[in-house]
Design a protein that fits this description.
single chain; 369 residues; alpha/beta; Rossmann fold; 11 helices; 25% strand; globular; metal-binding; ADH-like_N; ADH_Zn_CS; zinc ion binding
Length: 369
């Protein structure tokens, strides 16, 4: 492309400081260096993890930053040493890389890599604005018209894939779906409970259905979400606000002692405990899916001594370069829903409106272009 090897000036939504609105800026995106890929972002979703960094985590060293990590785009140019990608390829940025060489990538037991990001905003960046370095959120920064990633953090996808739909596979849908299928390993004929019906929770419901669960109980304090959950496969609905007893007791009564599998998709330590205690003793499995790192979580030892398993998942257990293209194919084959997640189509200039909608419990798609 004509821009190859040159600095690109483009629009991006910059978070200059925590707990403040994003600012539309013209930024500079440097050419990709060795083993890097520069991508024109076509579409990106808004995920609660973006809001977590901006409004909850608010680590002072994590700003200024370009947020966004749930995107899809087209390769604009590549740096030296890149052989897997070429300009024009459709791709999805990955916030968990897959080098295929480290002990983690070679292990079937995890989807994490040796260079897994331990901070939410990487200092290594190709983005600048007004002479200042902009951190890249989770190494991706999809709230920008262009971004640069290492080739091990990019997945090539089917050229037939609609980028304005499959961008949702960059985080939320894979996270929830994989939590059920890969991490919990939901079994056919089982009973499941999904706590929280945002995009991740709805994807978890979809994963439970794909795995053949017989009963899928959707739990949320917003009853307006129940109809949408039914679209993805939920069979029953419980609003904790409708009960004076702990929700775990309500579910235990509904299921003859507890559910086989529970998935916490909120990122709330209290809900995590409720999800665990909702599992049947002996074999119940509860998975932490929602992201938070602000508080400790706790449970009584007897809950685990009695045979329950408590585990967590990151990106639904998918190895990015392998799993994301497979999920794209599943969508194209109509085995996975994506269109039904989209509630709003917006432009990058409307990013603060999108953030407000997300804070109010909406899931949406943010178009760039």
């Amino acid at each position: 492309m004509a821009t190859a090897g040159k600095v690109i000036r483009c629009k991006a939504a910059v978070a200059w400081e925590p707990n403040k609105p994003l600012v539309m800026e013209e930024i500079e995106v440097a050419p990709p260096q060795a083993n890097e890929v520069r991508i024109k972002i076509v579409a990106t979703g808004v995920c609660h993890t973006d809001l977590y960094h901006l409004f909850e985590g608010m680590h002072k060293d994590g700003f200024p930053v370009v947020l966004g990590h749930e995107g899809a785009g087209i390769v604009e140019s590549v740096g030296t040493g890149v052989t897997e990608f070429q300009p024009g390829d459709k791709v999805i940025p990955l916030f968990i890389s897959q080098c295929r060489e480290c002990r983690f990538c070679k292990s079937p037991k995890t989807n994490q890599a040796a260079d897994r990001y331990d901070v939410m905003a990487l200092e290594e960046t190709r983005l600048t604005c007004k002479g200042k370095k902009l951190l890249q959120f989770l190494g991706t920064s999809t709230f920008s018209e262009y971004t640069v990633l290492n080739q091990i953090a990019v997945a090539k996808i089917d050229p037939a894939a609609p980028l304005d739909k499959v961008c949702l596979l960059g985080c939320g849908v894979c996270t929830g779906f994989g939590a059920a299928v890969n991490t919990a390993k939901v079994e056919a004929g089982s009973t499941c409970a999904v706590f929280g019906l945002g995009a991740v929770g709805l994807a978890a419901v979809m994963g439970c259905k794909a795995a053949g669960a017989q009963r899928i109980i959707a739990v949320d304090i917003n009853p307006e979400k129940f109809e949408k959950a039914k679209v993805f496969g939920a069979t029953e609905f419980v609003n904790p606000k409708d009960h004076s007893r702990p929700i775990s007791q309500v579910l235990a009564e509904m299921t003859d002692g507890g559910v086989d599998f529970s998935l916490e998709c909120v990122g709330n330590v209290g809900v995590m405990r409720s999800a665990l205690e909702s599992c049947v003793k002996g074999w119940g499995v509860s998975v932490l899916v929602g992201w938070t790192d602000l508080q400790d979580f706790a449970a009584r030892p007897i809950q685990l001594i009695a045979g329950r398993t408590w585990k967590g998942t990151l990106f639904g257990g998918f190895k990015g370069k392998d799993g994301v293209p497979e999920m794209v194919k599943a969508y194209l084959d109509k085995k996975v829903k994506l269109d039904e997640f989209i509630t709003h189509n917006m432009t990058l200039d409307q990013v603060n409106d999108a953030v407000k909608l997300m804070k109010n419990g909406q899931c949406m798609l943010l178009f760039l272009g």
